[in-house]
TrEMBL record:
Keyword terms, alphabetized: Membrane, Transmembrane, Transmembrane helix
Lineage: superkingdom: Bacteria
Family matches, as InterPro entries: vWFA_dom_sf
Record field: transmembrane: 6-27, 59-80, 329-349
Name of the molecule in the record: Membrane spanning protein
Amino acid sequence: MLSWQWPWAALAGVLIAAAIILLFVAFSRRVKPADEAVFSLDDDLNTEHASRLFRQWRVLGRLAVALLVIALVLAIALVARPSQVDSSDERASSRDIVLCLDVSGSTLPYDREVIDTYLELVKHFEGERIGMSIFNSTSRTVFPLTDDYELVTEQLTAASKALKGVQTQDDIDKMSDAQYQKIADWLEGTQNRKDATSLIGDGVVSCAAMLPGFAYGAANETNAKRQRAASIVLATDNIVSGQETYSLTEALDLTEQTMITVDGLYSGPKTSESDQTTADMKSAIEAHGGVFLTQSDGASVNELVRDIQSRRDTESDNQSKASMTDAPGLWVLALAVILIIWIACTWRLRR
């Protein structure tokens, strides 16, 4: 729908144009002095050829005047800023998502499947900032929060290829030294504590620390008000070995206080999905407002994506509002065409 952002400018333009035209008409009608010589072309136009040229000149002159009037109208219309309502929704996503991956020995054979799941998640994101952290006894940031999905896809694809050789024990036995070194390089920094693996609570806290507004020992609503809406996608089998600084429940308490949503993906053998550790993880995640899904659920990716989408409660106020955008395109084109025709007419009149 066409509208005008500066209608008052159009009115001002009309008044100015009218004043100029009136002044031109007034000066053109001034009476010439009586002693001024007057020349007549009547005798020169008596021939048929001259009459035809004169009629052509008059037509071109009137056309040039008409074109100038049209150009003036178009210019006034452009001054008024023709606009149209863009009915498409505007999104200014304000959500940060951290992919939090357990890379301990008990989950490593299943991590590639989880990473492929992350690759599916990325395809559904538009505008979110995404980061990834992997943890065992300690954590390592694979890539910080970013909206460069090409970089995210590149990193996840590289990790998926690196972990291709650890799906089964036979695959591990057949690994070359180069493949083993590639995996070791990717896991560098995740096993800096001795006699401890899969410290899940500590891993969750490290992932939460990647999000603005979260601080160790200072997770509260004051911090939460300063941060964007945040989600953590946690993939683990919830099998802890060693002394944790934070248990999973304590870590979830901290994230809940800062309004960080933690969703869980079970990364372990399907035969262990009914174990008590899995049930405990499911209860802890759901008790803190998250959703818990297993890899055996064929619709898990779509379900998790839909749930994350529904949690976007901090998008900008203009999400469902239509916007007013300038639409000068056709008006400028019409003005350009009119001016080109007018220039051609004036050039022909001068000949």
